[in-house]
Amino acid sequence: MTGAITDDLLGAAAAADPYPIYAELREHAPVHWSERHRAWLVTRYTDVAAAFADKALSNDRVRPVLERRRAEGKTSPGESAAAPSASERVLAMMADWMVVTDPPAHTRLRKLAAGAFKGQRVSAMDERITTLVDELLDGVTTGTDPVDLVAEVAYPLPATVIATMLGAAPEDRDRFRDWSDELALVAFGAGGEARAERHERALAGLREMDGYFRELVAARRAEPGEDMLSALIAGREGTDALSDDELVGMCALLLFAGHETTTNSIANGVLALLRNPGELARLRADPELRNAAVEELLRFDGPIKVLNRWVVAETSLGGRTISPGERVHLVLGAANRDPERFTDPDVLDLGRSPNPHVAFGKGIHACIGAQLARSETRIAVSRIVDRLPGFALAAEPEWKDALASRAMESLWVHPA
Ligand code: HEM
Q1: For ligand 1, which residues put their CB under 6 angstroms from it?
Q2: Is 197 exposed, middle or buried, given 0-12, 13-18 or 19+ CB atoms closer than 10 A?
Q3: Residue 130 is part of a domain; what is its CATH number?
Q4: Nearest CA to ligand 1 atom 32
């Protein structure tokens, strides 16, 4: 049976609708070695949940690359082996990101950051987020031509929110979007001539980002404010605190982890509502439904399809033996549609309760920004459906051909 299964999660068809592929895997080969991806594909909810708690599965994947590169003495064109190359400096910063570390390094970073994400600080942002969404929508609601809700709202909002939370000056907010794209480009690697050039440009942009965050850290150390960066600086575990390098890395991580994901949760959520007019009408009629609706939109078509883990000790998942050195893809998009866990999983039901989806992960790495992401998605989706009462899909979206992100290029709608 396994041999006949389609396990290619890339390509135009899989990008447009990965769910039939997930369903077949989940039913017939729930823990499946894919030669195509050189990874185990884990698709059942119970196996994904077990994997989140399995210490044999590691997140530590940047430091080994950095160490290998250093050992091989690799440099970029025009750089000397003696000084760390630009890409090595960026890799060194990324190696400090809690999302790519294991305990005990992870435990320390997460504890030091946790205070900055306290509920009160995040809920204080609701009013600001509403104002930002409304400013972005002002440009949309006045016109009659089709508009791209990704470009107009879903893409600019999260970078601006993170810039605001970190206490950046309003005139600097646009640069955050470029840096976020540049971080993604470097984090997901580059190949080929054209991409090598883009990679070099991205590295130059990230040098600028590094300098900017260093100045921001120095300014907040000298004069703390109410912002999240001041809270990160103040975070203490006994006498331990985040160093300047770690603070710069943390700012970059928040931008990287919180931008594209939230863009996609807003865009995918709006698309799901447009494709399910009954649920859209239900949401408009019952504002009380909005919190539950966000959870269901995240379950139904969440921004992260796949999370990566490296195997560091022999373990077993769904009865299959997994060996050290192998790679595991936790297919969140498949787990969130598992009929063993969710009744009628392919149906969008905004009132679904309980809704134990894994769109934010689970266990020690579960999304630290989930509350902020929920607020942004709730406010953006609500304001879009409230302010565009007659909006309709203008074109079927084109999806990015990516393994990990469920991301569309654009979402063209007729605003009225
Ligand atoms: C809807 C939007 C979002 C989704 C779906 C999402 C999803 C996730 C998931 C699945 C993980 C776990 C990664 C793993 O286990 O390897 C994660 C971790 C993380 N997220 Fe989010 N995220 C979102 C928004 C945000 C935002 C807005 C921020 C911050 C501004 C953020 C910051 C982080 C950080 C720092 C981690 C690493 C936590 C750790 O390693 O302990 N995320 N996120």
Answers
A1: 59, 98-99, 110, 162, 253-254, 257-258, 261-262, 265, 302-304, 307, 359-361, 365, 367-369, 372-373, 377
A2: exposed
A3: 1.10.630.10
A4: 369
